[in-house]
TrEMBL record:
Domain ABC transporter: start-end pairs: 3-203
Keyword list, A-Z: ATP-binding, Nucleotide-binding
UniProt xrefs under Pfam families: ABC_tran (PF00005)
Lineage: Bacteria, Bacillati, Actinomycetota, Actinomycetes, Kitasatosporales
Protein name: ABC transporter ATP-binding protein
Length: 203
């Protein structure tokens, strides 16, 4: 088991969003989190990433974790290459290795990195690709991806899902928040956080 969230409870201003949610993802598994807008999908992912503290419950992560937030967390006045260096350093990678790996991951998403363009001048979809690349830098064991393909064109979207199946083959635990229900037959488990299923339903 690489990711185990047990009995996660979270309220914002006395409004309960998560009512004791469980999620267990093993090595080589892909889990999808689905549910209506505001159901708490991003909140659960942030709790799993250690960015938000739950009111109750516990999260255990084995190995390294990569997180791709819903809203691109990139820095406008840095180039993609500088992002690779900075995020790579945070994961113990040397500058050259981080740059090479970043460009390689970008190419696999059909993006050829231009050395001079600042992140603020990238298109929305390309900025989101940068976000996915940063999450995957340093070969994490657990990948948490919050609707990561927003703005991707069709080819890049298919490339993204190919990446997800490759990560599964490599034995990673992958969690994807998604509204794209046409992929659900290919994932290993689906956690539905819609309000009617108060504690989340594993489908
Ligand atoms: N920091 C916060 N302070 C107060 N309320 C918050 C905060 N973060 C989230 N919420 C509220 O918690 C609820 C769940 O939000 P969350 O972003 O987790 O939902 P979601 O399922 O990811 O939604 P979407 O599908 O629209 O992305 C929403 O009602 C949201 O307004």
């Amino acid at each position: 088991m690489l990711l185990h969230a047990r009995g996660i409870v979270k309220s914002y201003r006395r409004r309960r969003v998560l009512h004791g949610v469980d999620l267990a993802v093993r090595a080589g598994e892909v889990a999808a989190i689905v549910g209506s807008n505001g159901a708490g999908k991003s909140t659960l992912l942030k709790i799993c990433a250690g960015l938000v503290t739950p009111d109750g419950g516990r999260v255990t992560v084995r190995g390294r974790l990569g997180y791709c937030p819903q809203n691109a967390g990139v820095m406008g006045f840095l180039t993609p290459g500088e992002h690779f260096t900075l995020f790579g350093a945070g994961r113990g990678m040397r500058r050259g290795a981080a740059a090479r790996r970043g460009r390689e991951l970008a190419r696999a998403l059909d993006w050829t990195v231009n050395r001079r363009t600042l992140a603020k001048d990238l298109s929305g979809g390309t900025r989101q690709k940068l976000n996915v690349v940063l999450a995957a830098l340093g070969d994490p064991d657990v990948l948490l991806l919050d609707e990561p393909y927003q703005g991707f064109d069709r080819g890049s979207y298919l490339d993204f899902w190919r990446h997800v199946w490759d990560w599964r083959e490599e034995g990673k635990a992958v969690v994807v928040v998604t509204h794209m229900l046409n992929r659900l037959d290919r994932v290993d488990q689906v956690l539905d956080l819609s309000p009617r299923t108060a504690t989340g339903t594993t489908l």
